[in-house]
Amino acid sequence: MSSWFVKKRQQKTAVEEKTVRVPEGLWIKCDACKELIYRKELVNTHNVCPKCGYHFRIGVPERLENLMDPGWTCLFSHLQSADPLGFVAQKSYKDQLARLAAAGQTEDAVVVVEGTLSGHPVVVSIMNFDFLAASMGSVVGEKLRLGVERAFEKHCPYIIVSCSGGARMQEGTLSLMQMAKVSAALAKLDRAGLPYLSILTDPTTGGVSASYAMLGDLNIAEPKALIGFAGPRVIEQTIKQSLPEGFQRSEFLLAHGMVDKVVNRDNLKDFIAATLAWMTNPAGA
Ligand SMILES: [Zn+2]
Questions:
Q1: Topology adopted by domain 58-280
Q2: Cα dist from 167 to 105, 137, 206, 276, whole Å
Q3: Distance from the alpha carbon of residue 29 to the mean position of ligand 1, in angstroms
Q4: What does the pLDDT look like over 5-54, one tens digit per residue?
Q5: Distance from Cα 156 to the centre of ligand 1, integer Å
Q6: Which residue of 40, 41, 135, 171 is 20 to 30 Å from 31, comparing CA positions?
């Protein structure tokens, strides 16, 4: 029998096992080099370790601050997840959604904004890992699609900043359908000659990595981000081989042609701006 059918259920996914967001406190210890860092110093470095360059995970507000010029507008905030399957596992999906709403998480797992990036008009979608590990449910898919439509109407580039644990199992097949829906919408931008940039951040996994996160005209990753479909341990148990050092990290994917560029967070806005200048006006860049 294939090992697909005999493999034991994983205790935790690679994504779940490590929380690397900056913890509270005056000093924090870097997860990579274990050096102590003065918290205020991280504000100036966009939450990148000044000693070793380790990129801490950041939330949507920090990402907006990093990328957008002041004055952006939030779009499609009215969309809220339903519970079409009445899904109950260890927790009820309905209760999970209610708790997140009570905690002020009203945008589901993606925030879509329009505004400018270094003066370039853009529509930008940023996935929110604090909302069910940025899992791709129906609202995520619909907001991403509406973001595409908005970029199409404005005739401007579209950017998705991805991070995700994958499809949202609480919505079953409806979640998987979002892969095709968003991919089809992006094809419309392609036909119109409008740039789509995919920014992959730690971690971008599952159905998100298997669809729109890999469909950018340029796929740009932050350093050492975990990017892959299945987790490394699942793959090792399936193929019964050890995986090479750095497997499924940005630099490995760059070396093997899966991403186009690895860019440090403090250079990301400038890199995107230069890319957009070239893509939207190649003669003048
Ligand atoms: Zn460090």
A1: 2-enoyl-CoA Hydratase; Chain A, domain 1 (3.90.226)
A2: 19, 7, 7, 30
A3: 8
A4: 444 444 444 454 455 566 667 899 998 999 999 988 998 899 999 999 99
A5: 37
A6: 135
